[in-house]
Request: fold
Amino acid sequence: MANGKRTISILGSTGSIGVQTLRVLDLIPSSFNIGYLTANYNFELLEEQAEKYNPIGVVIKDVTAFKEFKKHTNFKGMILPGDEGIIEAATFKQNDLVISALVGFSGVLPTLASIKSGTDIALANKETLVSAGQIITKEAKENNINIIAVDSEHSAVLQCIAGESAEEIEKIILTASGGPFRSKPIEEFNTITVAQALEHPNWTMGNKITIDSATLINKGFEVIEAHWLFNMPVEKIEVIIHPQSIIHSMVQFIDGSIKAQLGVPDMRIPIAYAINFPHRLSYNFPRLNLEEIEMLTFEKPDLERFPCLKMAYDAIKTGGTAPAILNASNEIAVYAFLDKKISITEIPILIEDALNKIKVIANPTIKDIIETDQETRNFVVGKLKT
Ligand code: MN3
Reply:
């Protein structure tokens, strides 16, 4: 910490969460310095961010985009390429907080490296906990660092359990909007277009997570994420459909009392909570107008409509590398759907196939997880070709 300012690095600063994090930081600019900002391809936006925030350094993962950036930029700080660059950003000595907002499995190694360097993490990259939750949480404990969830549901749980004892928690109730196809007739699912799937009713998010929300695998990932973050058996983590997205999740205690966290569906609120945890700062984000909310409704998730949710529960019960297989097969399937190569109904079929065919390693090392991830990707890509 230099002059009372915290140094914050953002892995994935040009993505949806990265951009919104900077918008939150903008509201109290005197409180932080930017260490590193990293992007995969979007060097134009990164250039704008570099100019505005004057970070210590920037990273562009893609080599072609890196060269373009270098050719045109006036930025005077460090400019690094590739995965090594992202690791450098993740482990920068002056970091007080790293925002891990990478998408998918690519977040695993940088997040792990950051934890090992002893820095607190605001974690928006749930796939890291899905694929490598056991290793990530063990390392976090050993290095005595906090992993603070940015995900709105987990932020809600964190807020509900503040001041409570772990042994007095009876269950976690994660809310799910149900996505855009909550009430669509199941026989019409194979006609769903990419554009329809990208229309989320309540939240504005990146493409991958929006598709994950439409299939409800996102909620399955969040069950696994909650399992690791709050050290809670999956049997004690429930999902309930709550289409209004006003209650962001709940915790039930052993005396039958339930606490819920409410707010407008705006990611800046959980981002702000994660950045300032365990404190709160004053922000003038939109306030919930209770009088305008006519009702809050709840329903049981339909597992026939959303088989991915059940697969996620099964994968974490199997344990070992099963959730990594779930995640990797989903990633390939989702991008195939976004590329219009498959229909949305093929996503769970590909995942199930991978879970049946790829060998599960019970107590994996990080190397086992990386290899299983790669093996699963190759398997699904092979399936897509036939
Ligand atoms: Mn969420």
